[in-house]
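Supplementary Note 3. Input sequence used for the single-chain structure prediction.
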Amino acid sequence: MTFSVVLGQDGWNVTYTKNRICVLKGSSVELSCSYTYPSGHTVTTAFWFTELGTGVEPDSLGQDPEYSGRLEYHGDKKNGQSLKITDLGESDSAEYKFRFMTNQEGGKYMGSPGVTLSVTGLQVKVTGGHQDKTLTCSTTCTLTDNPTYIWYKNGHKVKEDTSSLYSDSFSDADRYSCAVKGHEDLHSPAVYVVLEMVPTSVSESESVTLTCRTKCTMDPIAAFIWYKNGQPIPNSNTYSLVYSLFSVSSEDTGRYSCAVEGHEDLPSGEETLTVRYGPRNTSVSVSPSGEIVEGSSVTLTCSSDANPPVDKYTWYKKNVASPKASGQSYSITNISSEDRGEYYCEARNIKGTETSIPVHINVMSVFPWVPVMGVGAVLTAGALLLTIYCTLKR
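The predicted structure, written as discrete structure tokens, is reproduced below.
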């Protein structure tokens, strides 16, 4: 339990029992506080409010027609006062404050900040594939007092747990909903939208059919909304149960779901579409790049985009018939001038093959330096000076 203490001056203060509350739509809540004031004062007016209004003083909730018949006051004007609000709706979400006045001049006080009330409904969210799904009993705020969740299958209780998650292998013929213990009459809407995708794995240029089925008859006939990776597909709204993808490409790979227009908060589970294609954008990188000195090493690496991934890489040297090596990387150690030339790789998977553009490997030769001896004579100051010189020649 949390406490919010609003301190005043000279004995004025308001203490709220809880400063944040999250409750279910359709339930009730009790806001409570205690307050003090200087001796010699007598409380004449005390009330709760949410807005300051247009006048000097805020308007009491009792004056708001939206709360008519839904307010119950408890306590007394001397020690404290609690307010019970029934039949809560999401529009009741607000910050509630307490105000009191006394019989003395200037004798009035407002407890601020107040109690933040959030009202939420229950919603079943579905994640996972066609076979194994996870249901989440979702709320827009964290419910107060750590509730216990109850799960229902076709209206019958099947699970009770403190976790809001329910994982299992679910049948598309069944309807699931959830509730919170103590508020079993406040069920979430049942999950009733199912996506069927045939097939779920295709090759490029093939077609796929997505069918959005409901567990009940929609009256009037409703439109369907289609999603890819959680985002609406542009211009995909249709009154047909079927959405077709013709001549698919790799860009169509993703997670698909559907929903009934007007019930977008209750989408179907997601189905993943996989598009298979042969290698493409195949290329070779060289490390180190540039000229390679004789005696050093170089590594060639082949990269390719493919689905399923490339299962075989083969290396070739231009104008040489037989392959040089296999594997995604090809290393040449103690390289010599004979290794100079153009190299390329071939990438292969079950859908096809692709060959990269050749890259040129330039091998720089290293020549030995040979010393050359020479003899010369120079006449200096009447003496013959014999000079031996040495040059390097390669």
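The chain has four domains: 4-120, 123-180, 193-269, 278-364. The chain is about 0% helix and 55% strand.
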